[in-house]
Design goal:
The protein is built from two helices and twelve strands; from the N terminus they run ββααββββββββββ. The chain has about 240 residues and is mostly beta strands.
Length: about 240
């Protein structure tokens, strides 16, 4: 199992976060890798060491328990990234919290645009185009168990559209956030994209003469990843 540790110092006030990422050993063997692309400029700047700091609009993505620590009662969040190969990564989030519980809605998309279709006889393109788009829609619920400890859960519907084939799944995220009582020192833990294996629907296309096509597509595990982190805020001397 791959274990990665990160120590980050940023800004004034600054945060130091120690993070371990679990689940890296399924790279290249799991489906739905779009679900692992990080969102939020601040979170990305922290090198993904964010599970204990997720108390802003991106909390539903990183750690749903952080919804109970957002600065305002209602928060809106939007992110746009121009990804590789002319793809667009979009994320929208809305949070609302009350005294002891909060909830959120989130939407993430990865849009490929038009892709020129090629085959073994038309390497420069057949003149036809197709799309490879992915999206998920999530609903989150968080609860403050005490003034220091909160838990959260997100249930999300995921769909991948590759030409005429679709992959659909129902996945879940779980998270906790605990303030230990030493200043604002806190620890966080989340498990994201937990669910059943992902398998495209439909029948695999026929192969050339002499080859036997499979009766159904192969299933791959969901891109489940677990994250643990600790963080503390302090002011640097000027």
């Amino acid at each position: 199992m791959l274990v990665t540790g990160l120590l980050l110092l940023v800004g004034a006030p600054a945060r130091a976060s120690l993070l371990r990422l679990y689940g890296g050993d399924n790279v290249g063997t799991a489906s739905g890798q779009f679900l692992r692309i990080p969102v939020g400029a601040r979170a990305v700047a922290l090198g993904k060491a964010y599970v204990a700091c997720a108390t802003d609009g991106a909390a539903a993505f990183w750690n749903p328990a952080g919804i109970m620590r957002t600065p305002g009662r209602t928060n809106y969040f939007a992110s746009h990234s121009e990804y590789t190969a002319d793809m667009d990564l979009e994320y929208l989030g809305w949070h609302h919290r009350r005294q002891n519980f909060g909830y959120a809605l989130s939407l993430g998309t990865l849009l490929s645009g038009d892709i020129l279709r090629t085959d073994e006889f038309h390497q420069e393109g057949t003149g036809d185009y197709f799309n490879a788009n992915q999206f998920y829609l999530g609903a989150s619920l968080a609860r403050a168990m005490t003034d220091r400890f909160s838990i959260g859960m997100t249930v999300k519907y995921y769909q991948e559209n590759l030409d005429e084939f679709q992959t659909k799944a129902l996945l879940a995220d779980l998270g906790i956030l605990y303030f230990v009582g030493l200043g604002d020192t806190r620890i966080g833990f989340s498990v994201r994209n937990f669910g059943s294996d992902l398998r495209p629907g439909g029948t695999p296309p026929p192969l050339a003469d002499g080859y036997v096509a499979a009766q159904e597509f192969q299933a791959f595990p969901a891109p489940t990843v677990g994250t643990f982190g600790a963080a503390r805020t302090w002011r640097l001397a000027r």
